[in-house]
User: Which sequence fits this backbone?
């Protein structure tokens, strides 16, 4: 039975946590979570974490029992992306822990703060290939910011303090804490450290003044400057500073996929987003600029197309990032600025002057006008129109999560993200199955906001079991399936680059999604025409609870524009529309 | 490709060597040799890593190493005067008739015979990698049955500070 009398969040007065009280490792773990102000734990019990779940039973900490560990970790990830606070997951040893791997890698690639707690077999069984034993710290070495194997109940509070600190400071990321069963059972005096001291971990947050001066000088000399704003802007909460900086310097802003919402998408200086399926103006701006200011981005190969020597060939590149290893990793940097994005922009703002960018902005505006994202109506239900409808009906105020594939690109092309943390999507890893559970986490964090989870029919089926949680907890996510009865992005590539040899992309034999939703106790709706789409979407928005809305689209719809793999950004395929 | 010798001061924790080796593996950095042992400070170990690559690769290696939470300091030793040593043990075919010849071969290298068997000897040598290589080539014609090298350990010379790449 839990001795965790301190964890009574529902009561008006929470008894103070007594330092030095002798409690079990499992109780200590929950106290740590309480002290770290964790709101939700997403998880799935099992043999090795029974002591923790016994402590959870005795506490009022909110636990969300997903139907799969992968659902749990994506939900925690969605919560973290929506709030900026670390997501917390618990899974048991062995298969429970390994089911988290995709979610951990997803968080690592997008720099999302997470604390992942796994159980392990007792230490006397470690290394014996015991039942449900897996070396999860070994397995997750390359996909965590750091991980811990806890050897005693005594060290558990310190490890937890360090785990939260590492996950949320510097460049955020997932931290895994593996706790053997005997540590959860063992009794030890509870002491939670107030501070963290890690000799090898001191992220540089304040930028070098000389480099900031060089940036200011470079702006004064530039005629075609561009800012490329990445996820680091959102991670550091630097949206206001970026807006002020761009307006003061009159530098157009391209947001990367992860940076969407970090700068208002409808602002006159917003160019769009670049890369493989980005807009023409953004790609041209990157290729023709003479000064490129990278802010919290990482020059990913979906933007440079891997041809880094030909990327922004005439530009002096400035790179601001809290992670020094990102600077110079993919592209050569003229002015490196290591530091927190918000603090770096704050340092630059007082000296920032308008750039000589009037003609350049006019040129970008002309590109915007000539080559907007566009599609042709052909009498069929167009996914682009559906996404535009989402934007218009929510005034752009929704939190939109996506899965991965064509719909993901249409969402980012046709929904204007004006607020940070309003787009939640797996950018770096491209994780199918992410969208639905991530929406669950985001909606739990913001119960009063409209949360739309846009999925393809492929990705939806990878974690559709989590509809049970939406139903059981009445989490009112609007789950959208853009159904083209195939793996659309794969089909598009096979069509374009594999001589139309459509190998293994047919998803015709999928369940009736409306009936599937109803089987889970979730309202199900379907639209096959524009008129039906308007009608069912209005019904979905009005529904006070979770709803699945299937939009059946033409299976041959492609995402354009496109930069083919191996091409440079200025070699865009504009599709039928242009 | 240029060789670089890097000194990495790390927390003496289980799994730290795996973290470092894993980093090199997954990032596609080559490890020529890696040696680990206690450092001058309790609780810290020093790894000496010899790696190959251009300056850009070296920069990434050091930056990525420094991202590891258990890494305290990263120094590049090979850009400044340094002392580097490794030890080799070689079991060489040595019938009694050729033993004196082998002794003559290894003497200029200040190598020593540390074990004598009925038909073999074990030769031990300490020195920089080039010297070790040279000795191996000289003994190869006699027949090397077993060979074991420690990998390089190294230190910057005198008061010359090692080039500090990451604080």
Assistant:
């Amino acid at each position: 039975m839990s001795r965790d009398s301190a964890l009574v969040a529902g009561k008006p007065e929470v008894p103070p946590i007594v330092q030095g009280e002798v409690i079990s490792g499992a109780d200590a773990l929950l106290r740590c979570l309480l002290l770290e102000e964790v709101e939700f734990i997403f998880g799935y019990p099992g043999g090795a974490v029974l002591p923790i779940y016994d402590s959870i039973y005795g506490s009022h900490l909110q636990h969300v029992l997903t139907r799969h560990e992968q659902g749990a970790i994506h939900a925690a990830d969605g919560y973290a992306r929506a709030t900026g606070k670390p997501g917390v997951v618990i899974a048991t040893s062995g298969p429970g822990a390994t089911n988290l791997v995709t979610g951990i890698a997803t968080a690592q690639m997008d720099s999302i703060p997470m604390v992942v707690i796994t159980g392990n077999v007792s230490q006397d069984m470690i290394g014996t290939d015991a039942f449900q034993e897996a070396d999860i710290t070994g397995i997750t070495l390359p996909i965590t910011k750091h991980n811990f194997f806890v050897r005693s109940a005594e060290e558990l509070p310190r490890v937890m303090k360090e785990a939260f600190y590492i996950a949320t400071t510097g460049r955020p990321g997932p931290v895994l804490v593996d706790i053997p069963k005997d540590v959860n059972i063992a009794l030890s005096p509870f002491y939670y450290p107030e501070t963290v001291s890690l000799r090898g971990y001191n992220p540089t947050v304040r930028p070098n003044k000389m480099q900031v001066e060089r940036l200011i000088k470079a702006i004064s000399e530039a005629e075609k400057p561009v800012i490329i704003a990445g996820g680091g802007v959102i991670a550091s909460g630097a949206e206001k500073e970026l807006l002020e900086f761009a307006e003061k310097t009159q530098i157009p802003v391209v947001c990367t996929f992860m940076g969407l919402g970090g700068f208002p998408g409808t602002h006159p200086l917003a160019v769009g987003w670049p890369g493989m399926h980005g807009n023409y103006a953004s790609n041209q701006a990157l290729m023709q600029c003479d000064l490129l200011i990278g802010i919290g981005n990482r020059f990913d190969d979906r933007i440079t197309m891997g041809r880094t020597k030909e990327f922004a060939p005439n530009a002096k590149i400035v790179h601001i990032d809290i992670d020094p290893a990102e600077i110079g990793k993919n592209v050569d940097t003229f002015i490196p600025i290591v530091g927190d994005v918000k603090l770096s922009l704050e340092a630059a703002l007082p000296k920032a002057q308008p750039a000589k960018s009037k003609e350049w902005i006019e040129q970008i505006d002309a590109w915007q006008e000539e080559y907007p994202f566009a599609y042709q109506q052909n009498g069929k239900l167009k996914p682009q129109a559906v996404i535009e409808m989402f934007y218009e009906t929510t005034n752009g105020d929704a939190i939109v999560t996506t899965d991965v594939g064509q719909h993901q690109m249409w969402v980012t092309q046709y929904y204007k993200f004006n607020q940070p943390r309003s787009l939640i999507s797996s950018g770096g890893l491209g994780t199918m199955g992410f969208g639905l559970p991530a929406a669950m986490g985001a909606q739990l964090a913001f119960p009063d906001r409209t949360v739309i989870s846009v999925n393809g029919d492929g990705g939806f089926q990878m974690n559709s079991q989590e509809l049970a949680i939406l139903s059981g907890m009445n989490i009112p996510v609007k789950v959208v399936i853009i159904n083209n009865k195939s793996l659309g992005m794969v089909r598009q590539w096979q069509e374009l680059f594999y001589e139309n040899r459509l190998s293994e992309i047919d998803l015709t034999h999928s369940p009736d999604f409306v009936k599937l939703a109803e089987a889970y106790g979730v309202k199900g709706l379907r639209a096959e025409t524009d008129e039906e789409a308007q009608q069912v979407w209005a019904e979905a928005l009005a529904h006070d609870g979770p709803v699945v809305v299937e939009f059946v689209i033409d299976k041959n719809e492609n995402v354009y524009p496109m930069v083919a793999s191996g091409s440079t950004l200025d070699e865009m395929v504009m599709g039928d529309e242009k | 490709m240029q060789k670089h010798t890097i000194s990495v001061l790390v927390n003496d924790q289980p799994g730290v060597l795996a973290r470092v080796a894993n980093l090199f593996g997954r990032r596609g950095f080559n490890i020529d040799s890696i040696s680990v042992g206690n450092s001058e400070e309790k609780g810290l170990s020093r790894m000496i890593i010899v790696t190959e690559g251009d300056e850009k690769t070296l920069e990434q290696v050091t930056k990525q190493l420094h991202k590891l939470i258990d890494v305290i300091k990263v120094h590049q030793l090979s850009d400044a005067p340094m002392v580097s040593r490794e030890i080799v043990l070689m079991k060489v075919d040595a019938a009694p008739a050729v033993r004196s010849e082998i002794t003559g071969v290894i003497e200029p290298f200040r190598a020593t015979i540390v074990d004598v068997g009925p038909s073999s000897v074990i030769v031990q040598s300490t020195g920089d990698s080039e010297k070790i290589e040279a000795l191996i080539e000289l003994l190869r014609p006699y027949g090397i049955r077993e060979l074991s090298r420690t990998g390089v350990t190294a230190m910057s010379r005198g008061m010359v500070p090692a080039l500090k790449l990451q604080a």
